[in-house]
Write a structure and sequence with these properties.
The complex is a heterodimer of chains A (498) and B (341). With 498 residues, chain A is mainly α. Chain A has 22 helices and 2 strands. In chain A, strand 1 (416-419) and strand 2 form a beta hairpin. In chain A, helix 4 runs antiparallel to helix 10 and helix 9 (185-214) runs antiparallel to helix 11. Chain A is globular and about 80 Å long. In chain A, 53% of the residues are buried. Chain B has helices spanning 2-10, 28-33, 52-62, 82-106, 115-125, 128-144, 149-179, 189-195, 200-209, 215-244, 248-278, 281-292, 294-309, 317-334. Classes of the chains: A mainly alpha (498), B mainly alpha (341). Chains A and B meet through helix 1, helix 4, helix 5, helix 6 and helix 8 of A and helix 2, helix 3, helix 4, helix 6 and helix 7 of B.
Chain lengths: 498, 341
């Protein structure tokens, strides 16, 4: 008798479904958590693992990975690297840790939902590895950030952010609570695993790791790369799910993916667009956000849609327009409302940076430069009060992002819906369309401004808002370079570097 | 920059602000586990209060009888982190690999198993993958609506341990099938699980657990009643029988897998003690759930004792029952369920 290979016994291990007779199976697998929406139970017999892994191999390989990350961590702590990093890069790492770590932990629960309620026993078993992976990612982020607390209090937000009402965090929480923690397994797999993880974050981690390495942040880069190797594996569970849904309900597959793509894109603009095109020092930028999107995200998404016989979303032209503008809008918005951030954004509008922006986005000066001109003028005149907000921005009832933040000043337009006596506002007709697909799902939520108007935030001024958001002076956002890019061109190191 | 560096020194932080003043350095386990459930607020998910996920969490997590305000003060006695978990289990799996190598290549044993041993393995070991998959689903459920990441992460590791066991059962099932192709290894198990009268109390309890959604009852019925009794039967008692039938490999694997069970029991009993320490009224709540599942547990004890004892000469079902009951009562005492606790 010989020792066995994994494939010798694997089919037995995944053959663990049985016919219920003591309770109603539908009660044990409630529709709201499964989300089959009429797809018959036997259809899931076609669900095949996109990769195979045994528990034995998993713990062996992951142990080795942990050892590798740990060794670099130890070396980097000794090297005291953080103190020498560029302020713009530091902002990217604060933003990343504050908005990503808890999402990793939320993904533990989404995977655990698969382990319990997925309609295929193969999927329920495979979910275990995804669940463990996500614990790893959250814990790597926490350990990395905790190591740096002594240097930077903003890393406290790695653990704290999702317990606050900071508006950007609310936007992230709202989306992921919806598609990870409220959705049934099928929607979660298509929206989160396939669209967000496989489509966006998988590639984002590659790009961010490369940028971090370029910036000299070896520890952060190594951590991101190590996480990405897990992510690339477990994000694949979206594909067999899509295989089944396409056969039985292609219209639903199209809808779920179109909604998720838009919502993920809007967050991606906020978190990655700003970091890539503004925080990263200009001489280190390899691609613009738009180029990155077109090369890595859009091509990939188009290929998946084509492979599965799905159409481009109806809003593709709007998406391409938003790709030119949305992250610039979000950058000027987040920078202007910088006291509401827990990181220090880099204004980043020095002449050299401006040239780069206009080269990458030919209409940038016309759309955005004119607004920054006014800000620069105010800074130079010492009128800092005019560069700071006095109140909160109006927000979208779907994305939770500022109204007007999907496009530029030439394309602004009102997008409203009245539903059950309440008026809802949207940052775009695409967001309005998402809302109208399933209003009951979104209508009960109050965005930050709704809460402000309802008197839930006191005192009713910016100070009250900041306090409510949990922003303390030690982390509150200010310009990363202390406005050097605006004050005096001669002082600009970026220009000098040219 | 000098001034900025000075400011950094002034506000130098030693640990998460949410850990407060511990009066000591936090452990690595606390650093990577603390406060990682963001859904503890009035409306759990950042959505309208009436969406499905919020209604579920309110009903089955927040409005349950067990009331504990401070789950974030609970600590897993084993202090498992991801890194520690994969290290620990890689060692355990390497041990099992060595056993398999020893019994498969150095002194092959499956071919020499007696018909009594084969009957025992076919009736008590290989059908277990269904039961253990049920346990895996329950651990995952306990994770997903736990009030604190300290509890949720422990439940995740428990779910992973259950997959480990399913895969080791599958491995042995295949080996036995290759050595004894006419015995139905790999094909008879579902029928046994669904129809063998002695397996029905286990299956009934598993199915009933899968419709038990209130978090406290799910945790207690799983980890204080159904699972510990089943693990005692199919790992500890089974190992005794297997050893007596010269099925040494399966006895040793079961011994090793029982280490996972012991860890699950340390975790669950610590959670119960924590709940009772937080509010003594919780003792009655926990008792209430144990009592509600008493009959199911008792049925498993009786059937399980028969199931294993029938395969061993000199093993008396009544004595096995007594042992199972005794261990079960000890577990309840460990959970703080005696009046003198």
């Amino acid at each position: 008798m010989a020792l066995l290979n994994r494939d010798d016994w694997y089919d037995i291990a995944r053959d663990v479904d049985w016919s219920f007779s003591y309770v109603d199976r539908d009660e044990a697998f409630p529709e709201a958590w499964v989300g089959a929406n009429g797809i018959p139970p036997e259809a899931w017999e076609d669900w095949e693992e996109p990769f195979r892994v045994s528990y034995r191999d998993y713990v062996k390989v992951q142990r080795e990975k942990e050892t590798g990350v740990g060794a670099i961590r130890d070396a980097m702590i000794r090297a005291d690297l953080y103190a020498h990093l560029d302020p713009g890069h530091r902002a990217s790492s604060h933003l990343h840790m504050g908005t990503t770590c808890m999402v990793e932990q939320m993904a533990v629960t989404m995977q655990s939902r698969f382990c319990r309620f997925a309609p295929s026993p193969k999927w329920r078993s495979l979910g275990v590895f995804g669940m463990l992976d996500e614990i790893r990612h959250a814990q790597l982020d926490l350990r990395f950030s905790h190591d740096l607390l002594k240097d930077e209090p903003r890393f406290d937000w790695c653990q704290k952010a999702f317990h606050t009402n900071e508006w950007g965090v609310i936007a992230v929480r709202n989306f992921f609570d919806d598609v990870m923690l409220n959705a049934g397994c099928i929607e979660a797999a298509l929206a989160t695993s396939l669209t967000v993880e496989h489509g966006f974050t998988n590639m984002q981690f590659v790009a961010l790791a490369s940028d971090a390495m370029e910036a000299g942040d070896i520890n952060f880069s190594n951590l991101l790369s190590s996480i990405q190797t897990d992510e690339a594996r477990h994000a694949q569970v979206g594909f067999p799910t899509l295989d089944v849904v396409i056969k039985h309900d292609p219209a639903r597959a199209q809808r779920i993916i179109d909604v998720a793509f838009w919502r993920a894109f809007r967050l991606f603009q906020t978190l990655t667009g700003t970091a890539m095109d503004y925080y990263t020092p200009v001489e280190k930028r390899k691609m613009s956000f738009k180029e990155f999107m077109l090369e890595w995200i859009v091509k990939h998404h188009e290929r998946i849609l084509r492979d599965y016989g799905l159409k481009l979303p109806w809003y593709w032209d709007k998406f391409l327009l938003a790709l030119d503008h949305g992250h610039h809008a979000l950058h000027i918005g987040t920078w202007f409302w910088r006291p509401t951030l827990f990181w220090k954004p880099n204004g980043g509008i020095s002449p050299a940076e401006r040239r780069w922006l206009n080269e990458k986005y030919p209409s940038w000066d016309d759309s955005w430069g004119v607004l920054w001109d006014q800000i620069i003028e105010n800074i130079r005149a010492g009128r800092m009060d005019k560069t700071l907000p006095e109140t909160l921005p109006a927000l979208c009832n779907l994305t939770q992002l500022p109204l007007g933040s999907a496009i530029d000043r030439h394309h602004l337009g009102k997008q409203q819906v009245e539903y059950e006596g309440r008026v809802y506002h949207f940052d775009s007709d695409v967001s309005r369309w998402v809302f109208e697909l399933d209003p009951a799902r979104y209508a009960g939520h109050m965005n930050v401004v709704d809460r402000f108007i309802a008197g839930q935030i006191q005192p009713m001024n910016l100070e009250g808002g900041l306090n409510w958001m949990g922003l303390t002076p030690d982390v509150m956002g200010d310009d990363a370079y202390d406005y050097r890019w605006a004050r005096d061109e001669a002082e600009q190191p970026l220009q000098a570097a040219e | 920059m000098a001034q900025a560096a000075g400011n950094r020194r002034e506000r130098r932080r030693k640990t998460w602000s949410s850990l407060g003043d511990l009066g000591r350095k936090p452990t690595e386990y606390e650093v990577v586990t603390h406060g990682m459930n963001h859904t503890a607020g009035e409306t759990p998910l950042e959505m309208g209060p009436d969406v499905h996920g919020n209604v579920w969490l309110k009903k089955y997590r927040d409005d349950i009888a067990l009331k504990v305000d401070n789950w974030d003060e609970f600590r897993d006695p084993d202090q498992l982190t991801y890194g520690k978990y994969v290290r620990l289990q890689d060692e355990q799996e390497a041990y099992v690999d060595n056993l398999l190598e020893e019994y498969t290549e150095r002194r092959p044993s499956d071919e020499t198993l007696s018909s009594a041993a084969l009957a025992c393995l076919g009736s008590c070991l290989t059908p277990g993958r269904y039961l253990v998959h049920g346990q895996q689903m329950m651990a995952a459920y306990i994770q997903q609506i736990a009030a604190s990441s300290y509890v949720a992460n422990g439940a995740s590791f428990q779910a992973a341990d259950q997959l480990r066991r399913v895969q080791r059962i599958a491995y042995r099932t295949k080996q036995l099938d290759l050595a004894h192709p006419t015995h139905g290894f790999g094909s008879n198990e579902r029928g046994i699980w669904e129809s063998d009268p002695l397996w029905q109390p286990m299956r009934e309890a598993t199915e009933r657990l899968l419709v038990t959604f209130a978090w406290d009852e799910a945790l207690i019925a799983t980890n204080l009643v159904v699972k510990p009794i089943c693990d005692d039967i199919f790992l500890r008692q089974f190992a005794r029988v297997a050893r007596s039938l010269d099925a040494g490999l399966d006895a040793l694997i079961a011994d090793n897998l029982y280490r996972d069970t012991e860890r699950h029991q340390r975790f669950a009993t610590a959670a119960c003690r924590h709940a009772i320490a937080a509010d003594r009224a919780n003792r009655d709540v926990i008792w209430g759930h144990v009592e509600a599942w008493q009959e199911a547990g008792e049925a498993i004890v009786v059937a399980g004792a028969k199931l294993v004892a029938q395969h061993a000469d000199g093993m008396v079902a009544g004595e096995v029952e007594a042992e199972l009951r005794s261990a079960w009562q000890q577990l309840q005492r460990d959970a703080g369920l005696t009046h003198d606790a």
